[in-house]
Amino acid sequence: MTEPITDIAPDIVYRNSQEAEGVESAEISVQDGGSNTVGDKDNKGSRMSSIKFNALGTALGFLVNGYMYQVGSLLLTLYEDVYPTVYNSSTLQSALSTAVLYGVLFGLIGFGFIADIVGRKAGLIMCSSLVILGSVLSVAANGTSTDGMMWMIIVSRAIVGLGMGGEYTCNVPNVMEDSEDVNVNTRGRRVSLLVMFMEVVGNNTPTVIQLILIAAACRNVTLDSRSSTGVRLPGCHPQVVWRLSYGLGLIPCVIVLLFRMRMSDSSMYQSDAKLRKKFYDGLDLFVILRHFTSRAVGTVVMWLIVDWINYSQGNFSGVILEKVTGVSLFKTAWIGLVQGVIFQSGPFIASLVVDRLGRRNTEILGWAWLASTQLINAGIYIILSHHPVGFIVWQTFVFIFQYFVFIPVYLIPAEVYPTRIRATMYGWSSGLGKVGGILGTTLFPYMWKGFGHGVESLDALRDIQWFYAGLEYLGLILAVLFVPEYSKTSLRGEDRRYNELRRRYAAKFAKSLGVSNISDAELREASNSSLSLYKLLKLKIRSSKETYLHAKQEYAKMLLARCYFQNSEEVERYAELPIYYDDRTLITKWIRQWKMGREEAARYIENAEKLGWEDNSQSSEERTNKNGSRKDDEMTIDNAVAVLNSEGKKPSY
User: Fold this and answer.
1) Nearest 5°: phi and psi at 288?
2) Following DSSP, what letter does each residue of 314-365 receive, concatenated?
3) pTM of the full predicted structure?
């Protein structure tokens, strides 16, 4: 007997009960005859044990990520206080504050592919290794000058960022898929606590450590105590502070790497990996561009705006606080710690409401709060600067609600895309979002001096607050229009709809090229084809029209094989089926209602939800043959896999 294959599209009754009651998901396996049976208790217990271990590894991983993000914030303030080279160079300031972000950007995109193609666990092991390597190089940073030493730190932190970026694309999709098997109704809360809440705990950890280090090595340093002697500043040993800050972060990194060895890929990923060869094809790109554009605005642009604001203000928060209040570096660290502890309640509260309110409504509430309070902040900024305590209290009060934006922004890309491309699309969403963080952090020192006519003044800081308010109102508008709603909705349903879209588009593409009379032998041969979009483009440019047409026909056969078509009749029937797909954004819903009318739009959405469960383009009578029985060639992807599996053939989809 061949190995059972986990069903990616469970029985409709089971799926409905899972969404309605939120019961724990049982492992569903397809046996040789193609029927779904509940896995035995030992397998279920083993899977739940794996889910718990993955959760612990996720929590520790994001604890480390939070540490690595925040460790540089206070150190940037230290560098400006004690190294004139840094204080006088906007380039160094920007590079130090964005090095991690550049690494995260490329890590997000690169490891998105790795997580989908190689596996979540393999990607996580590589991520932890990169973070350890970068941290070791950070501790060992040196140079013939202060400038050279700073650039070695910059390169080292970029390597750390590579691993940190992969943490998101490998870990968040994995824990989201695990949460699908725990409770669909509380999936958002579980992922929020394991990811965002633990990341904020990690944000506070370096502040505690640096308080102790600064108290021992640089207690009375302020912006005004800067000396041209650089690292020999009297009463301060800055290298003790920053080398130990980077070095102590290695301890949890090693622990996390050990946990990575015991973690496992989610059952949803393992199921999807068995249904296909681990690479993409032209159908994936076509479906993304054709149906996922609106939701991509909601996942990419939202992340870009929030990262622009968060990273620019976060990385320069210590410098701003010193400028406004005039306190020492040690007191700045204390204030940052108190704020961080208070901020800890933000992700906790947001995680409690994100399932109740829904992702879209939670994010809209967050943007509305931030935009409104930012306007007030800009109006009274100068007044608050004369009352340091009031300034600190108000800033804390304003930003505690930023997590009502952060949590939906983190969750939505991991929910709205199917398992086949989930990590890749999560990586692009977050990666392009990090472009906002890089732009915001890079431009902040230039904007500060530009608005202040060459001087880092309070008036210039107030002007920046007006700019942020405008960004936040833009975020509010886009959240209403482009953020999709997937709360309490099974991820397996999206997998089913996506696979059905692939089948219908593959059939239509084949028919448009005249690929109709195709034998089983040709389909089996086509499943092993090495054709790719890149090769097709080369043939289009360099070869004759006949050669290019033949290559397209072979590519169409390959797509049919990967979508488990069994014969020409099935291809013909699928080619005639209409396309229904609802991306669950308001902008698409309103456009559809405007074009079709409310009633027709409602029927369209109903058909879109049924996509893959039945041929919803036909009536019951049309779906029966002359003898009153269902057509024999109505075979779902899962039944096709079961047949191939029983014949001892490896699926290629």
Assistant:
1) -60, -50
2) HHTHHHHHHHHH---HHHHHHHHHHHHHHHTHHHHHHHHHHHHH-HHHHHHH
3) 0.80
